[in-house]
Amino acid sequence: MRIAIVLGTRPEIIKMSPVIRACEKEDVEYFILHTGQHYSYTMDRVFFEQLELPEARYNLDVGSGTHGEQTGMILSGVERVLQKEQPDVVLVEGDTNTVLAGALAAAKLHIKVGHVEAGLRSYDRNMPEEINRVLTDHCSDYLFAPTETARQILLGEGVSEEMIFMTGNTIVDAVYQNLELATSRNNVLNDLHLEPGGYFLVTAHRQENVDVQERFGGIVKGLEFINREYRMPVIYPIHPRAQKMLNQFGLQPNGLKLIEPVDYLSFLQLESQAKLVLTDSGGVQEETCILKVPCVTLRDNTERPETVSVGSNLLAGTEQEKIMEQVQIMLKRENSWANPFGDGTTGERIVTILKEELV
Ligand code: UD1
Ligand code: UDP
User: Fold this and answer.
1) Could you read off the pLDDT of 107-138 as tens digits, one per residue?
2) Could you list the residue range(s) of the whole structural domain that residue 84 is in?
3) For the sheet containing 313-315, what is the strand order?
4) Closest Cα to atom 24, ligand 2: which residue?
5) 110 given a catalytic annotation
């Protein structure tokens, strides 16, 4: 069996790292095909270096562009590589343009597709990710659902039961594999002069938030309000898309500490010691749940409803008052919820399933 691992963005590198490690451990033949959707050092290379991942055999260097341009370039680039390499299965993870184009290229060549993190739905077609998820699930052969909720969604959409495997989410593996290292080695709190439990951590980068002036402006106001009310630092490692839009809209956040995106061990350390995390990221909603840190999501919906059900997360949208209200509620909660995303062996499970299926 030979696996092609297609990835292209920060969260895919992080969430595929346990699968890559499992391939190494099980001595399974694989290669990495990087699309180059993310390319800045802080969004890409830093994770390969820090997580000690092998070099990608191919990098398509597609870079940024409109959805059509980017997806189209990935589609034709992945097709070329797959025609040459003829792997038995292509693995994609998540819901980015890389994922949709990678899955589609493989499916059209009659190469099996495995979708890691299948069955997530926000039911919001304004999100490019929702379109990518639905389409990817429906051209995949192996659907690795992180939770029972995701499995039920796929069954409800008519996906046949034999194609769905409930494996948990590889993000748990990634957190477990790196947290100890993060807390033992990393000194990011000292560098930023922060006390454990004495600051808020923020990430916001979603197209439907930061590309819309009213929504991004609302988020910034909400964060400024929290900074004034709690008299605590608000740390925002800012995604390049958000930085670009902040400049374009001329927003000048007052009292917030904007920093470059940080490496994974630093981010885990910041996340695990934060008083509360505000985010519109998918992965961060999961990680805070696993780390038992309260989370307020700066969105109107989530494809991770398990976090809300177990009590680790509340949806706030992008209006200042609602953000404040949800922060107050979350800060009164006991952080005693159970992690619904698995036991940290998802990467190994996926590789074992593929070995069994592809003999
Ligand atoms: C993409 C994914 C999103 C995911 C996010 C993870 C899609 C449709 N979106 O969004 O689901 O949550 O990655 O972070 O696939 N840029 C840089 N350097 C980089 C990458 C991007 O400067 O390395 C800037 C460019 O100005 C670019 C913009 O960020 O135009 C957006 O990048 P893009 O990859 O299109 O989407 P993301 O917002 O990163
Ligand atoms: N992350 C990181 N450094 C940062 C911000 C986030 O390493 O400065 C990690 C975070 O721990 C999580 C992942 O990036 O694992 C989430 O990626 P992102 O929010 O870009 O994408 P999403 O999960 O929303 O698709």
Assistant:
1) 999 999 999 999 999 999 999 999 999 999 99
2) 2-169+342-357
3) 256-259, 234-237, 200-203, 276-279, 295-297, 313-315
4) 281
5) no
